Amino acid sequence: MAVPSYASPLERAWHYAYLVICGLIFFFLIAPIIVIIPLSFNAEPYFTFTDKMRSFDPEGYSLRWYDSLLTFGMVAPDGPRDAAWWADAWANAKWVKAAKNSIIIGLFSTILATVLGTLAALGLSRPEMPFRRAIMATLISPMIVPLIITATGMFFFYSNPCQLLGLFGLPTNCGRLAGTYLGVILAHATLGIPFVIITVTATLVGFDQSLNRAAASLGANPRTTFFRVTMPLILPGVISGALFAFVTSFDEVVAVLFIAGPDQQTIPRQMWNGIREQISPAILAVATLLVLFSIALLTTVELLRRRSERNRGITPH
Amino acid sequence: MANALDPHAAIVTTASGAGDGMLTTADGKPLARALARSQSRARRRAFLLVLPLLAFVVVTFVVPIGQMLQRSFYNDGFSANMPQLSAWFDQNPRGTEPDDAAWEALAGDLVASAEVRSIGVVGTRINYDVPGTRSLFTSTGRKVRGGIEPPYREALLEMDEDWGSARLWNAMREAATPITANFYLASLDRRRAEDGSIEQVPERQRVYVMLFMRTFWLSLLITGLTFILGFPVAHLLATLPMRKSNLLMILVLLPFWTSLLVRTTSWMVLLQQQGVINDILVWLGVIENGQRLQMIYNQTGTIIAMTHILLPFMILPLYSVMRTINPSYVRAARSLGATSWTAFRRIYFPQTLPGLGAGALLVFILAVGYYITPALVGGSSGQLISNLIAEHMTGTLNWSMAAALAALLLASVLILYWLYDRLVGIDNLKLG
């Protein structure tokens, strides 16, 4: 975007001022995320750049906060770093445990949300779908309803999931979902579903239905048509929906606060504890790792989006 | 209507003609019926694809929220455990002085309730309306466990003279009916006076209306700020050549993909009194070391952090609308003599309104229900209504009150959601 040749000096000045303003806003967007990265290498337990850091003295920097992620919660953190030490870290370190939980919960809730969400998106994209608008609104609502309300509702429901069966005269006691992995997985799947629906239906908007008919006319049964024709075309959308669902679960703390037990502490839950109790630069080390993780995810999603556009014959303009 | 030149009209005439003139499929069935059947089969198939997910969302999301909201108007903590006294309240209208029968019912219920150890539940229920009465119930419960001798009135007043308080009796009358609007009244800072009319609570106790106002006002302010910051950026991204704008887009999408807790943490680090921003200001000599700014654990912290977190939700819809705006309209306006400001105000800006509406509604909806960021950086003056719901859930354990507040919050969010669907359409929701 260049200044047109007929612009007056005032307009020129405004144009450059505008570019500066935009630069400042981009700075506002990105600086808070970038600034924590160097701070996580602070040798001192401060949240600001020490004199040594500012003069780029190597002594001002250290990996001690990354190390504390491993040692925090270990039985014998000071021992020599042999196989036993690593086994101890793998089994007992709190952040390692939290990471394992986050990955397990994220993985299963993503699978659930993606399978159900993709099927539903296929149905919702058919022109003959009845009550389309109302159903779509219901399925997207977990993204819109304030998390605290969702979590509160789940808190009661998951502590006795069969209570409502009493209305039909069935036994009302069938155990708890609160404090179990299954409970957290179901809750996170619910929260991830809107993202899968949105991305997959967006992919299906450009989907040419005559491809399905062509496959059928060539003798393919509906199953073959789905796996050989539809699926490869919508796959980029499905994968980016799945990534969204995974990130939602990976970043979710409110539902975890309300329904998870001590065994299901995830990374965000552990961060929440850390921030509320005693905030130490160890949080910044975790945050830095998470930023790297989101950069990787963003790159993947961006590549998928381009691939999907190529597949569907939409060239970026 | 029938036009001889319209080919469709010809078919319709034939099809709706009598008996044997009807169009049929190859195997002799009437075409209209075969078509209807195949359409309903297609509808059923589409619905069956959606059904598993719909059932899942209804069971794990809609029903739990409904169940929770039921608590806002239904609480049988008192009526279920104090049946005799509840019956007495039923038979005697408001304003009746408690007579001997009432005291007998109260004593009988207290003894029975103390036996089955449900007296704490009863006390908790009354405690919502008259703070400090839970211990009255539990201590009396301990004393009457072996039974109680008449005259009941004197015996109970002997144990604690609070039993004679008109306010307590009034609260027990209110609690005797399990279905109640009192929690909604309380969330609007109202309560029932002793004569049954609705009055405002004393000024010191009015918190909820103020919190709702603050939540809406801050959300509005944050929406405004995201608009002011988002508009120029979206415009720049939409007018730059694709390659450059894709590169700059990363600066918008990276915060969008970064964990909420990470972004909140960074703001805590930046805004602290010993944090980076204060350090820079001191270093630049803008402020003295002694007068570092308090930018966090108050409303300022909530506003700054939430504006940053919600900004991408404004930029993305604005950008996708601005991309489609044809630049030649503005050029035409300029060539007809409009100044650049007039061209922007009269030609360009009106075309961005759909994106602006979508972004503003989305940001507002998300801001109204925000919980984590205000809880971490808000201090006491930056708390929103969600934080109070959480406080009632985990702190005071007044779940009915939490449910009533949640119901009011949910109602406002759903109205906005409905508006969003009308104006923008949920199909047009874009993620990156």
Q: Can you walk through the features of this model?
A:
The complex is a heterodimer of chains A (317) and B (432). Chain A has 13 helices and no strands. Chain A has 317 residues and is mostly helical. Chain A has helices spanning 9-39, 51-54, 64-71, 83-92, 94-124, 132-144, 147-159, 181-205, 209-217, 222-250, 254-259, 267-276, 282-311. In chain A, helix 6 (132-144) packs across helix 8 (181-205). Chain A folds into two domains: 9-75, no CATH class; 95-311, Orthogonal Bundle (MetI-like fold). In chain B, strands 1-2 form a two-stranded antiparallel ribbon. The model of chain B is unreliable at 1-18 (pLDDT under 50). Chain B is an all-alpha fold. Chain B is flat, with a radius of gyration of 32 Å. At the A-B interface, helix 1, helix 5, helix 6, helix 7 and helix 8 of A face helix 2, helix 10, helix 11, helix 12 and helix 14 of B.
Q: Spatial order of the strands in the main sheet of chain B? A: 1-2
CATH class of the largest domain in chain B: Mainly Alpha
Which term fits the overall shape of chain B? flat
Major β-sheet of chain B, in short? 2 strands, antiparallel
Number of domains of chain B: 3
**Number of β-strand runs of chain A:** 0
CATH class (first level) name of the largest domain in chain A: Mainly Alpha
Mean pLDDT of chain A: 87
Task: Please report which band the strand proportion of chain B falls in: under 5%, 5-15%, 15-25%, 25-35%, 35-45% or over 45%.
Answer: under 5%
Computed over alpha carbons, the radius of gyration of chain A is 25 Å
Structural class of chain A: mainly alpha
Helix fraction of chain A, binned, reads 55-70%
Pick out the low-confidence regions of chain B: 1-18
Subcellular location (chain A): Cell inner membrane; Cell membrane
Pfam family, one (chain A): BPD_transp_1
Membrane topology (chain A): Multi-pass membrane protein
Family (chain A): Belongs to the binding-protein-dependent transport system permease family.
